[in-house]
Amino acid sequence: MFVYPPPHYILFEPLDDITAGIIRSELQIMVNNYEPRIDLHRLDVNPDYDNDGFNVTINFSVKNNLNPITIALFLQRLR
Predict the structure, then answer these.
(1) Which of 9, 16, 57, 77 fits 44 for a cystine, CB–CB 3.0-4.6 Å?
(2) What's the pLDDT at 7?
(3) Distance, C-alpha 13 to centroid of its chain
(4) How far is CA 59 from CA 29, 73, 75, in A?
(5) What CA–CA distances, in Å, run from 2 to 25, 39, 61, 67?
(6) What distance in Å separates the CA atoms of residue 34 and residue 12, rounded to the nearest whole number?
(7) What pLDDT sits at residue 9?
């Protein structure tokens, strides 16, 4: 198993699909480990080359509730 650097360091890696995949993987692990009250349906991480960051879309539902919730956010490095 490959050990990644802490999540905030990943934002300083190259802006590409590989880094987006690592961020997606790390977010999925964090949600599964630290938020047992939700069911994660979909997690998308896409590089945004024009704005120098990553678009993240999380689709989930709270357990015992059928209404899905979607959160969209933008991750970027701070200099």
Answers:
(1) 57
(2) 63
(3) 15
(4) 15, 12, 17
(5) 12, 26, 30, 36
(6) 24
(7) 76
Closest CA to 42 of 23, 26, 61: 61
Written as one string, the DSSP assignment of 12-58 is: TS-SSHHHHHHHHHHHHHHHHHH-TTEEEEEEEEEEETTTTEEEEEE
Predicted pLDDT at 52: 92
Which two structure tokens, joined as six digits, stand for 39?
A: 């069911």
Per DSSP, the three-state class of 6 is coil
Question: 75: burial class by Cβ within 10 Å (0-12, 13-18, 19+)?
Answer: middle
Run means of pLDDT, 10 residues per run, the chain, 79 residues: 63 89 91 92 96 96 92 89
The tokens describing 17, both together, are 């699909």
> 61 pairs with which residues across the strands?
39, 68
